[in-house]
């Protein structure tokens, strides 16, 4: 009897007796709870969870699955007991938004997602609510577009990046006096996930901010002069018709095959002041984001930039030294390779010979300017 009464849920104690050809209910409540769709523990929930805190995790995950398929719900007394326990929870791959809502409702958010001390700036009072609103909006958006656009790994990191979007600009100072993103701390130190997961979420946050700045220019026919200035120097002039391709290409080479992930996240932020957290999940916002994503994705395709991160430079470091007539490398080689990358993005059909001619002409032009000065 004791074996069955310590099971996590009341209906766990149900078993089929082959001798009597019947289902036996040891606790006397399993069948009724199963019929009524209640997820409840046979013993006092407090005692059940104190015996093994990870049972909270099972209750939440099972609640998500069962509510989706059978309209089950967590018993209120179970929620109250679970709210006192810390849970090392990882993202559910079935109904993540609902799982995070449960974590928030159970007041477990800051126990599951431990924040570092002294974050800068201070975490908003309703940060947990904002995080849940963002992952809900992200999940709804992904459902409307279709899961197939992402791999399982991309979808998982998309959800983590969306969940922690409200703290994307929040950092803390670690023991080595380095500034570390709070989201990175939560993923690496609180959830104990891979360091590469924390790094990718940080990269997604950086990339989505850049997408927010770039989206208006890809949507219009205007030349983004303010961004164009950042691209050029005394050796490089970007043709106006190529500015968008260079800007987008540089960004895609940074985020690589996660660019669609970063783009979709950026639609939650664009335009920067168009919505509040309370309107984040409105149908109007959903339609607008889906339209933005579609337009930008088409623009990237039209610019022939998908897989641009696989493009190799026409000149490697050694060849660049020969063209520049340098005996040794150094920072100047790195700068010229960055210029070469921009030149290739602006001239996708350019040849090695044309590239070398451009470098020599740029050098000659610069030397004339220096001499006249």
Automatic annotation (TrEMBL):
Highest taxon in the source lineage: Eukaryota
A GO term, aspect molecular function: ATP:3'-cytidine-cytidine-tRNA adenylyltransferase activity
Keyword presence, RNA-binding: yes
Alphabetically ordered keywords of this record: RNA-binding, Transferase
GO biological process entries: tRNA 3'-terminal CCA addition
Name used for this protein in its record: Putative CCA tRNA nucleotidyltransferase 2
Organism: Ananas comosus
């Amino acid at each position: 009897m004791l074996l069955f009464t310590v099971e996590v849920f009341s209906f766990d104690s149900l078993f089929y007796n082959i001798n009597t050809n019947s289902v036996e209910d040891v606790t006397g409540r399993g069948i009724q709870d199963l019929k009524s769709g209640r997820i409840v523990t046979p013993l006092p929930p407090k005692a059940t969870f104190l015996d093994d805190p990870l049972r909270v995790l099972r209750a939440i995950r099972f609640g998500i699955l069962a509510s989706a398929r059978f309209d089950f719900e967590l018993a209120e007394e179970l929620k109250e007991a679970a709210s006192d326990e810390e849970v090392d929870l990882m993202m559910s791959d079935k109904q993540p938004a609902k799982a995070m809502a449960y974590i928030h409702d159970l007041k477990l958010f800051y126990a599951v997602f431990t924040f570092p001390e002294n974050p800068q700036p201070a975490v908003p009072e309703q940060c947990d609510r904002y995080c849940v609103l963002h992952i809900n909006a992200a999940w709804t958006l992904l459902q409307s577009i279709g899961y197939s656009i992402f791999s399982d790994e991309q979808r998982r990191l998309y959800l983590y990046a969306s969940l922690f979007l409200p703290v994307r600009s929040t950092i803390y100072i670690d023991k080595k006096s380095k500034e570390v993103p709070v989201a990175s701390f939560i993923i690496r130190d609180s959830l104990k996930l891979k360091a590469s997961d924390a790094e990718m979420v940080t990269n997604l946050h950086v990339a989505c901010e850049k997408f927010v700045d770039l989206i208006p220019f890809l949507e219009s026919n205007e030349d983004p002069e303010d961004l164009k200035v950042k691209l050029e120097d005394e050796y490089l002039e970007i043709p106006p018709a190529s500015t968008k391709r260079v800007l987008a290409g540089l960004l895609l080479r940074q985020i690589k095959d996660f660019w669609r992930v970063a783009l979709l996240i950026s639609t939650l932020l664009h335009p920067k002041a168009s919505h509040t957290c309370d309107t984040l999940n409105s149908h109007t916002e959903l339609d607008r984001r889906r339209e933005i994503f579609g337009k930008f994705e088409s623009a990237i395709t039209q610019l022939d930039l998908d897989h641009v991160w696989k493009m190799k430079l026409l000149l490697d470091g050694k060849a660049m030294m020969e063209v520049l007539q340098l005996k040794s490398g150094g920072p100047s080689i790195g700068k010229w390779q960055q210029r070469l990358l921009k030149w290739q993005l602006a001239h996708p059909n350019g040849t090695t010979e044309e590239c070398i001619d451009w470098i020599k002409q740029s050098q000659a032009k610069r030397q004339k300017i220096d001499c006249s000065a």
